[in-house]
Amino acid sequence: MNSENFSLSEKIVSTSYVRQGSQARRSHEQLIRLLLEQGKCPEEGWSESTVELFLSELAVMDSNNFLGNCGVGEREGRVASSLVARRHYRLIHGIGRSGDIAAVQPKAAGSSLLNKLTNSVVMDILKLSGVRSVASCFVVPLATGMSLTLCFLTLRHRRPKARYIIWPRIDQKSCFKAMITAGFEPVVVENVLEGDELRTDLEAVERKIEELGAENILCVHSTTSCFAPRVPDRLEELSILCAKQNIPHIVNNAYGVQSSKCMHLIQQGARVGRIDAFVQSLDKNFMVPVGGAIIAGFDESFIQEISQMYPGRASASPSLDVLITLLTLGASGYKKLLSERKEMYLLLAQELKSLASAHGERLLNTPHNPISLAMSLDGLQAESNGAVTQLGSMLFTRQVSGARVIPLGKEQTIGGHTFRGFMSHSDAYPCPYLNAASAVGITREDVTLCMKRLEKCLKTLKKEKNMAKSSPVLPPCQEDTTGE
């Protein structure tokens, strides 16, 4: 309804009523105008009606929704199912063009506007979360691993002779496979044990650079968010080293946006040294479906190179999901979620420490990890070899998701490289342990239920052990040889 249609409506319905309706619509339009003017996440979240009005306005700008459109091409935004069309708000054309995921589509002005606004709003959130000097970013419809691969493939054109990627070890398959998929040889640098924490071995990284030669190294591939007792890499020191040796630096910041500490490390690393790009997951940081990531950096031209490396058009679903989420939450709503996550981290640490003490275990001291916690399972290991893995199975069947139980001595081969002590980020971590994380969206009820069920599992295992000890050992049965 434009002003002309509202004027015509006054001939049908009372003028005062129509003007009231017109004012109500203008309040929606004012919010949309501010978004278009500023390109920032609104401070207060929008109502669902405002979000839906905005998406409807975008959709009518795409050619597949033109009333008189006559499509004779191979891609005309045709959708067989009306349910699918509604699921996507009739934004069918996706984002980008064959040469650049960030390019504007002539057929789809609305989808193109959605893409540009999403990237702008997401960059505002990255700044709000702590990386104030980020220069450019874009949402890509790939999860974190493939997004890292895209970064490595882009660097290949800048460093055609490079074969190796220096990688401080983190036992997570997708970031390792990202390097192999891009055609490079990961050089695994083992971590050093400092107290309970596994930290970056900077001297070993320097030795590898000397040994291989800086010109043969594509980049250093570091990590922020990770499972305790592994802690974020020493990003400042690695960034200084990369700047000194003129080696690119890619950071896997998978679920680090929700942590002010992880974001501060990236900001500081870029300030004192070199960080070329940092990659973060959409689902882990913004509570949207799996399938998208943000690739961001401090050099706009390099981030543009990465976007141009993406072959073909791309799905708009991740962009649509994260834009709807951020418009609904608003900056204040997202900041509130981050604040609540920190509170739950402290609660989870307190509860785990208390539970560990009651069962003769301890909460591992990992102050440099702002998201993940670990509790030792030495006593459980001593009871039987299978008790540690049995605990993991028991928790899963009792609907405790996300808790990881790490036994000693597990081996895993990925892409021809064998990791000893896999999942513990170390060849020989001193003890088995259980992981739990305070990630964005966690609630007090989650923590309470997890602790209740974990305690019940530990008591059950202890009871089974005591029963096994107290059961008499019966002599083997004698075979009847009487023939009767």
Automatic annotation (TrEMBL):
Any one cellular-component term (Gene Ontology): cytoplasm
EC top class, as a word: transferase
Positions that bind substrate: 97-98, 105, 313
InterPro entries given in the database record: PyrdxlP-dep_Trfase, PyrdxlP-dep_Trfase_major, Sec-tRNA_Se_transferase, SepSecS/SepCysS
One Pfam family matching this protein: SepSecS
Gene Ontology biological process terms from the UniProt entry: conversion of seryl-tRNAsec to selenocys-tRNAsec; translation
Catalytic activity from the UniProt record: O-phospho-L-seryl-tRNA(Sec) + selenophosphate + H2O = L-selenocysteinyl-tRNA(Sec) + 2 phosphate
Location within or outside the cell: Cytoplasm
EC number: 2.9.1.2
Positions of modified residues (N6-(pyridoxal phosphate)lysine): 284
Regions crossing the membrane: none
Tagged with keyword Transmembrane: no
Keywords: Cytoplasm, Protein biosynthesis, Pyridoxal phosphate, RNA-binding, Selenium, Transferase, tRNA-binding
Biological pathway: Aminoacyl-tRNA biosynthesis; selenocysteinyl-tRNA(Sec) biosynthesis; selenocysteinyl-tRNA(Sec) from L-seryl-tRNA(Sec) (archaeal/eukaryal route): step 2/2
Residues marked May act as a substrate filter by repelling compounds with a negatively charged alpha-carboxylate (site): 74
Main location: cytoplasm
Positions that bind tRNA: 271, 398, 463
Positions contributing to pyridoxal 5'-phosphate binding: 75
Cofactor: pyridoxal 5'-phosphate
Molecular-function annotations in GO: O-phosphoseryl-tRNA(Sec) selenium transferase activity; tRNA binding
Role of this protein: Converts O-phosphoseryl-tRNA(Sec) to selenocysteinyl-tRNA(Sec) required for selenoprotein biosynthesis.
Subunit record text: Homotetramer formed by a catalytic dimer and a non-catalytic dimer serving as a binding platform that orients tRNASec for catalysis. Each tetramer binds the CCA ends of two tRNAs which point to the active sites of the catalytic dimer.
Family: Belongs to the SepSecS family.
NCBIfam families per the UniProt record, alphabetical: selenium_SpcS
Protein name listed in UniProt: O-phosphoseryl-tRNA(Sec) selenium transferase
